[in-house]
């Protein structure tokens, strides 16, 4: 069964010492996304998962929401929660 929205947060750790999403707090953001989705409503309609490298390390941590193909650079759990509120509860075409 497909989800209405799938939230992917890169948790890749680059072994070469270069900037990576994991090294920039991605695991904390993933936890925040999972908590927020659990509070938002119907179980099984949306899911947050860790992903491997999304190829945008310079903007990390990176979050993408499918099927809408919306990409975000998130720095704090509060940003993740705000994006999920605005996009999944009250979609804003300008976001």
UniProtKB/TrEMBL annotation:
SUPFAM superfamilies: Thioredoxin-like (SSF52833). It comes from the Bacteria. CDD domains: TRX_Fd_family (cd02980). This is NADH dehydrogenase.
């Amino acid at each position: 069964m497909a989800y209405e929205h799938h939230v992917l947060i890169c948790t890749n750790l680059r072994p070469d010492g270069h900037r990576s999403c994991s090294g920039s707090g991605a695991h904390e953001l993933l936890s925040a996304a999972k908590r927020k989705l659990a509070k938002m409503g119907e179980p099984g309609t949306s899911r947050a998962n860790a992903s491997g490298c999304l190829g945008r390390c310079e903007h990390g941590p990176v979050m993408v929401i499918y099927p809408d193909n919306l990409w975000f650079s998130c720095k704090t759990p509060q940003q993740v929660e705000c994006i999920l509120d605005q996009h999944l509860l009250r979609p804003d075409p300008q976001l």
